[in-house]
Amino acid sequence: MNIVVLVKQVPDSGLARQLDAQLRVDRNGANNVMGELDEYAVEAALQLKEAHGGEVTILTLGPDQATETIRKTLAMGADKALHISDESVAGSDALATSKILAAALGRFEWDLVIAGAESTDSGMGIMPHLLAARTGVAAATGARKIDVDGTAVNVEHQRDNGYDVLTTQLPAIVSVWDTINTPRYPSLKGIMAAKRKPIETLTVGDLGIDAAEVGAAAAATEVLEAADRPPRSAGQIVTDEGEGGRALAEFLAAEKFV
Amino acid sequence: MTDILVYVPDSGKHAAEVLTLARSLGDVSAIAFDDAAASLASEYGAAKVYRVNAAGIDDYFVAPKATVLTDLARQVSPSVFLLPSTDEGKALAARVAVVLDNGLLTDVTGLETDGTARQDIFAGAIIAKSKLAKGFTLATVATGATAAAPAPAEAPVETVEATVSEDDQRVKVAESIDEPAGDRPGLAEADVVVSGGRGVGSADDFALIERVADALGGAVGASRAATDAGYYPHKFQVGQTGTTVSPQLYLAAGISGAIQHRAGMQTSRVIVAVNKDADAPIFGMADFGVVGDLFQVLPQAAEEIEKRK
Ligand SMILES: Cc1cc2nc3c(=O)[nH]c(=O)nc-3n(C[C@H](O)[C@H](O)[C@H](O)COP(=O)(O)OP(=O)(O)OC[C@H]3O[C@@H](n4cnc5c(N)ncnc54)[C@H](O)[C@@H]3O)c2cc1C
Ligand SMILES: Cc1cc2nc3c(=O)[nH]c(=O)nc-3n(C[C@H](O)[C@H](O)[C@H](O)COP(=O)(O)OP(=O)(O)OC[C@H]3O[C@@H](n4cnc5c(N)ncnc54)[C@H](O)[C@@H]3O)c2cc1C
């Protein structure tokens, strides 16, 4: 079974993140990491490969430095990667991103595409359905569990209040939440092996897409302004010296919650 | 007045919020696939309801509903089309966007009549204003963007008959499992949420969080550290990869306040924290905080609240 994993490099969500002067995500800092949910997608693909054989290919659209993230996926155990890197893509909206990823997916044979349920920078959580609508392939998203049996795919689609069992046939696109597995760390051997694994790099032109169809100029969405969230006004903090619980109850009573 | 199309999935609070926001922008035409959703639309001021009948549509995942919404959007050609920012709402919006070749805005926390949307990005650290430069305003609305306010009206109902095409039958919903909700209010809908984190230390000790929640008539929540450790089931997780809540009161006990947790609760009206570490980031956003051991503070607070009730 051949699997493509969609991996996006993002600024570390645990650190301060910024927009640049053009109100785009500042990706120039040193804090770039693999999309935190994409790690679960890579792990899910590796487990399926271990069970069913085949190959795991990473697909990334992003600037040159995204190679670091690709190397990490190869060190985890992915076999090869396709990296779409092109200056003209900067400022693309989600629709243009999906156009490029769909074209890239058209370059090889695959049975299953696995994505993170959402990226951890812009976090729209829509890429798999954009791709499904573009390619006509089935999408069973938001998985907390995936089983493949022959050509049948079973997904437990996580909901706030339970889950749905979705069934479909390969080829399919799935996306995963962080409940699905525990991603492995790359081993030293994996890190060494990753250096020899192939990464193909292409531009959007190579995919047959005109640069004018992507990037900021083509985007339907426009960010007008951005500002830091105003801090909440400082609250009252007390230290418990035996009466902290009562003080808490009094505050709640004053606010009419009791 | 401007034509606003709204997808109403059910009769829940989030759907009511989206209808309330939509009403402030123009005349609302609601799309409902069942009677409960249709009557919510009337209750929240829709001027018209498209009541869709499509046999078997719930047996298939997302695709057939997307086709119905796309067809209606084509027919109505609205200036604004709003859906709730749920997994389903986003999936539907994405498919409508591709087929109609229209941009889309997700997770908007506000929308003005000129189409300017507010988006809280980077887990809410930055607030951006954005809009669609072309096409109609297709957007999914975050929970808590607006306070739901009823405006009962007798909206005329137009029945729409639809069929599920073979293409849209690729992903079957084989089973739908609802985990028992228990006696407490639902997490996303509750006015009061009392959450425990790693600091609670064990599944057994979550009884203390439940006791405080029950004293306040609230729901129980948990941080990912607590759900990962098996202290409490995952469906109660609050945060980026859990449920987003926006209650009147959020009480966090033994929770440090990591950015992914804040993403799911920072729009709560009043935030209260109990943590033994005075430097925990949660105190930076708390209206009231107690620096102390939750095993001392919470039992005393619960007793006091129970006494005053
Ligand atoms: C402030 C701000 C607001 C924005 N608002 C909007 C908006 O409302 N509408 C809009 O259209 N665009 C918007 N954008 C642009 C948008 O973030 C990008 O176009 C982005 O490509 C959308 O994808 P996402 O990361 O949100 O994807 P998601 O749908 O969250 O991604 C899900 C998964 O898809 C895969 N994936 C996503 N991107 C890539 C990639 N580049 N390479 C490989 N795999 C990938 C990953 O597996 C990821 O986990 C905004 C940008 C900013 C800075
Ligand atoms: C992709 C991704 C998604 C994530 N999604 C979520 C999410 O949806 N929700 C979420 O919550 N997290 C999420 N996280 C995890 C998040 O980064 C934190 O790890 C998590 O929120 C920490 O939980 P915590 O505050 O309970 O634990 P900790 O950070 O370990 O904090 C425990 C706190 O308890 C206090 N404490 C300990 N004992 C006591 C005591 N006896 N009395 C009082 N205080 C005590 C400590 O001082 C400490 O502040 C996500 C992370 C990633 C990478």
TrEMBL record, chain A:
Molecular function, one GO term: electron transfer activity
InterPro entries: ETF_a/b_N, ETF_b, ETF_beta_N, Rossmann-like_a/b/a_fold
The keyword Transport belongs to this UniProt entry's keyword annotation: yes
Boundaries of every Electron transfer flavoprotein alpha/beta-subunit N-terminal domain copy: 22-211
Family matches, as CDD domains: ETF_beta
Cofactor names: FAD
GO-annotated cellular components: cytosol
The protein's assembly and partners: Heterodimer of an alpha and a beta subunit.
Functional note: The electron transfer flavoprotein serves as a specific electron acceptor for other dehydrogenases. It transfers the electrons to the main respiratory chain via ETF-ubiquinone oxidoreductase (ETF dehydrogenase).
Name of protein: Electron transfer flavoprotein subunit beta
Taxonomic source organism: Glycomyces buryatensis
Lineage: Bacteria, Bacillati, Actinomycetota, Actinomycetes, Glycomycetales
TrEMBL record, chain B:
The protein's required cofactors: FAD
Key words of the record: Electron transport, FAD, Flavoprotein, Transport
Binding, FAD: 198, 223-224, 237-241, 254-261, 275
Record-linked Gene3D superfamilies: HUPs, TPP-binding domain
Co-factor: note: Binds 1 FAD per dimer.
UniProt domain Electron transfer flavoprotein alpha/beta-subunit N-terminal: residue ranges: 4-173
A GO molecular function held by the record: flavin adenine dinucleotide binding
Taxonomic superkingdom: Bacteria
SMART domains: ETF (SM00893)
Role according to the record: The electron transfer flavoprotein serves as a specific electron acceptor for other dehydrogenases. It transfers the electrons to the main respiratory chain via ETF-ubiquinone oxidoreductase (ETF dehydrogenase).
Family: Belongs to the ETF alpha-subunit/FixB family.
Subunit architecture: Heterodimer of an alpha and a beta subunit.
Protein name: Electron transfer flavoprotein subunit alpha/FixB family protein
Organism taxonomic ancestry: Bacteria, Bacillati, Actinomycetota, Actinomycetes, Glycomycetales
